[in-house]
Amino acid sequence: MPNIQGRPTSIRSAAAAAATAVLAGTTACTLSEPAADDGGLTVVTTFTVLADMVRNVAGDRVEVVSITRPGSEIHAYEPTPDDLVRGADADLVLHNGLGLEGWFAQFTERIDAPTTTASEGVETIPITAGGYRGEPNPHAWMSPDNARVYVDNIADALSGLDPAHADAYAADAEDYKRSIERIGEDLAGDLSRVPESQRALVTCEGAFSYLARDAGLSERYLWAVNADTQATPRQVASVVEFVRDNDVPTVFCETTVNAGAQRQVAEETGAELGPALYVDSLSKPDGPVPTYLDLLRYDTEAIASGLTREEDA
Question: What pTM was estimated for this model as a whole?
């Protein structure tokens, strides 16, 4: 069962500093006027992927709100006064953990709501390069196997808030986990057709370590986490060399960052720059990935298509 905490105990300092000024400037009167309580439960999540997961387990029994909006970059997000009001009104604030939300401790210091960590219990992969070397890669939801752990944690947290509906949360969680499992099977099938000589995934951020592990792909990226979104000439040169040495047909970037450095890699190697992949954010409802399941499908299909481009030509 996830540990529901009154206060988080750690913070990634690189992103926390960006949020401090906004949070410190929030006036007391802003937080003293919460929205009217209609008696229902409200869960606030830090980003849209978690919000969608919670909705699939909670159904219409809980109001679910994401702090960040579709398209937002999560790592160095700066919470607004409105975000603090939403947090103050919450019955539970759910975050990813693993250092993803570097601003989270500063955020929760200003509100009086319990918190829980969605990623608790997942088998993590360490970051292998850059200033975060050795720390756990925070993008654990990109593995369908890990996602099922997230769902169990969500169901346990909701049951703790609302014991009367614990059986319903458990049943919805099992249904949702089966859907995620089917996505995982499809992912493995789609990526199994990538030839051995091209089983290399090259991205801007190192956000695909879990997906690459599950699919048997090697991985290379320009930067480890989006707190470092300016690729150095040395990083670009290293990725260029990797793409050439491994005949990588397509390289990728994510929707929440500038693809300029990866575009340079593509131009210098002759690789194609593939469609932007989704990781830290869902799309708007009318976009290509309005749900977490859609995100997994979209990314898998884009990667499989890009890495088999030369074979299909």
Answer: 0.85
